[in-house]
Specification:
Order of helices and strands: HEHHEEHHHHHHH
Distance between the termini: 36 Å
Low-confidence stretches: 1-5, 247-260
Shape: globular
Structural class: mainly alpha
Number of strands: 3
Strand order of the largest sheet: 1-3-2
């Protein structure tokens, strides 16, 4: 019988060799600056799902060249945030309830895996960052539809910082990579859910913070799973046009009752 390798007991050094993809968003170059801006505009739904991305409009919005835009758009296509079609150019990727369900199921697996490992290898500085990130997030209420784009972006940045802080000491670079990819894919759905929300939810971030700081792996994993699934259920019942097939019409009653 083949031996099953387990996650390392000791943390993997940050300098250890890994083939996990490079985070190009950290690079300091004009192309990546435009990529960061476009990416954030898509994730915050400033650039709406299915919206055509015309070079003339993009050049004016981002004050850059067609070559830089093409390179940035190629990155977005590879991430699944944009689509390209021969002869028709680029468009923002569509959204659908089926897509949200699919990526959320994978998120449950990866978020619980990375969170459990992070708690096992947590440090004092890790705890301090969680406390700090939660404090900054709690200073801003969830954004409203008529809030300025800058306010929405700031909330999104703080929300991501908090969730990233929870798993920062996970020892698997690949798990962290795919977990981060799925978190970002879900951000558009989080956004649509927030701006259309009719129901109020408890302070799930506070519950998560306390469970993680208490090093209660079982409770923390149950809470992050509930956090993900509750958002799916809320999106299915409250976001106009979010159907199993994509845009058009409201989610059906049978869809709302489907497994989150």
């Amino acid at each position: 019988m083949a031996k099953i390798l387990k996650m390392p007991v000791e943390p993997v050094p940050q300098t250890a060799a890994t083939t996990a993809p490079q985070d190009v968003l950290r690079e300091d170059a004009a192309t990546f600056d435009v990529l960061r801006q476009m990416r954030e505009d898509i994730l915050c739904c400033v650039l709406r799902p299915d919206q055509r991305l015309r070079f003339g409009e993009l050049r004016q919005r981002y004050d850059t060249s067609v070559g830089t835009l093409r390179e940035a758009l190629s990155h977005l296509v590879s991430e699944g945030l944009a689509r390209t079609e021969a002869g028709r150019g680029f468009a923002v990727a569509p959204v659908s309830l089926a897509d949200f369900l699919d990526l959320s199921e994978l998120r449950v697996y990866l978020e619980t895996r990375t969170l459990a490992d992070a708690i096992r290898h947590g440090t004092d500085s890790w705890e301090a960052e969680i406390v700090s990130a939660y404090f900054l997030l709690s200073k801003l209420g969830p954004p409203k539809p008529d809030d300025p784009v800058s306010v929405k972006r700031e909330w999104g940045k703080r929300h991501k910082r908090f969730h990233d802080a929870l798993v920062a000491t996970c020892t698997s670079p690949w798990s962290l990579h795919f977990r981060g990819e799925l978190f970002d894919q879900a951000r558009r759905y989080h956004w649509l859910t927030m701006i259309h929300a009719r129901s109020r939810r408890t302070n799930e971030h506070l519950e998560l913070r306390d469970a993680v700081l208490a090093r209660d792996i079982d409770l923390a994993c149950r809470l992050i799973e509930k956090h993900i699934r509750t958002t799916v259920e809320q999106a299915a019942s409250e976001v106009p046009g979010l159907t199993m097939g994509g845009a058009g019409g409201r989610a059906t009653r049978s869809t709302r009752r489907g497994k989150a």
